[in-house]
């Protein structure tokens, strides 16, 4: 048997319990062979390691303090002991220390008090006998706490540490200050103990100047204009005010609310300036500019908690009314504010979250994209489940099912353009008995979507992905000119790596396309392979810093868009909000690379680049009566910044420039001019 070395640590304190730094601590067995020494640090803490077991004398000394000596220290094998050493300061009024029997001579060292040796926390129970320090007595609750019937309005003490006005803790709140305790921001009850009210006011100002292909139309703005493409410059400015009133019954931020009523009206004013007629309105007499205003109800719902499922705040609740819902991480399939009923909740300490939702859509105002009160005759059913830490920690996955029931209707937008059904292919001059008096043939869509998406990180790599399979049928596709079944896919993958203040990212996006080059009875099969969504709001591959994603491009000589604003899909759809899904489209492949810079905590910068390519061009060849059309769409580049002065989302300023350099295929269907856009957006939130 061989003895194992031990350790001693502790703290040198004065008689008032204050640390004594720089004290010399010595451990000696009375001979010169075994002597250990160290000096206490700035907090009075000392440590002595690799001590051979045995009997020792412990000494601590420092100038202006009486030395501390203990000759009764016994250290066992493999012990880890702690000790608090207290030093008595030397004062002028201290009595003279005498030698033995009061005879002057060598000063006698006073007897050392108990040093309170105790085993270090975490030792096995067998060593608990070495504990010599009496544990501190915990005061009774009445000594530390006092009952307060209404804890929400306990006054905060004045903070005068610096003696000048700054932003210190405990600053007094005001009704107009959302950053401190505020009754109308839900910081304490509006009445009773659990009823809270939260008002949120939002102002969003957007400016967009762009150059996009614009036909001169049947009545050119310039006299004698004969070119097909006219003046391409456009400018748009929009201002939206949202006022959210939220009354809820609850307790703390961890506990889901028991009952909630929310009401959010919105007002929008917008102005569009172009240089050609027939753009702002189908009636060329309306000129080249348009001013419009609209008010809508964006939220208006009641929410109630049905039941608590566990002590860990697992719950199930129901919400009915106009509400916002985004069905995945990046807004690929459905992102809307529409009336509906949603049952939602979580399980296993919020590791699993789920939604069961039904929406009956309202028509949108064309120019503001706010809700109207006119029914859309479209219903959406959604079921999804989110699982956190799926297979590995830090990764969340989602499985979903969507059903889009879009009934056959005829609809003209606020500018008198036909948007439903899409004015392309065989849609007008209908002579069958089922056509309405306008001679327009409507059609209905029954589309089912099976989805798997994910977001999180695998080690150091950030991952975001999505895959959707679309099935169903369209009773009469206007491009195919017949009933078609649906079999289409969407895939997206983004990988990024954070290195200090820079994020490097790359991504790929795939939208399947339809490859049939014939229509009607001559079409080779009855299946449409072009993917389209319900109502997407995609934030992927650059988002606002991508021309293709942020700017809509109309397909000239038709009434549809090659791509709609806020979407990546080359869907040939008349309108993202007011039109119907179209599954006979060219599809898209996109390869992306970008860099995000956290320049400061307040300022972020973005650089983005995309390569775009049609998957199939047959639908374009049918729609434009033009063949062949190349697959190359072009390259898309953007850069910009986001600035948040108060380090919160209360003030956000975003600006950037985007450009699209046309490829051969784009030049064939539109023109070869480089497209440009510059934008700025200011968001203010109270």
Structure explained in plain terms:
- This protein is mainly beta and 686 residues long.
- Helix content is 3%, strand content 46%.
- The protein is built from four helices and 31 strands.
- The strands form five sheets. It has an 18-stranded antiparallel beta barrel.
- A hairpin with a 4-residue loop joins β27 (588-598) and β28.
- The longest helix has 7 residues, at 618-624.
- The protein is elongated.
- The two termini are 74 Å apart.
- 30% of the residues are buried.
- The model is unreliable at 92-120 and 126-133 (pLDDT under 50).
Explain the layout of strands and helices.
Elements lengths: L5 E9 L9 E5 L6 E5 L5 E7 L2 E8 L6 E8 L4 E8 L30 E2 L21 H4 L50 E17 L21 E17 L9 E15 L15 E20 L6 E12 L8 E13 L4 E13 L6 E17 L7 E12 L4 E2 L5 E3 L24 E14 L2 E17 L4 E18 L2 E10 L15 E2 L18 H4 L2 E2 L6 E3 L24 E11 L4 E11 L4 H7 L7 E12 L7 E12 L1 H6 L5 E11 L1
State the major sheet. Answer: 18 strands, antiparallel, barrel
Cα separation of the termini: 74 Å
Summarize the amount of helix as a percent range: under 10%
Mean pLDDT across all residues, rounded? 86
Count of distinct strands? 31
Q: Oligomeric status of the shown chains?
A: single chain
Indicate the proportion of strand residues: over 45%
Radius of gyration: 37 Å
Structural class: mainly beta
Poorly predicted ranges: 92-120, 126-133
Shape, please? elongated
Number of contiguous helices: 4
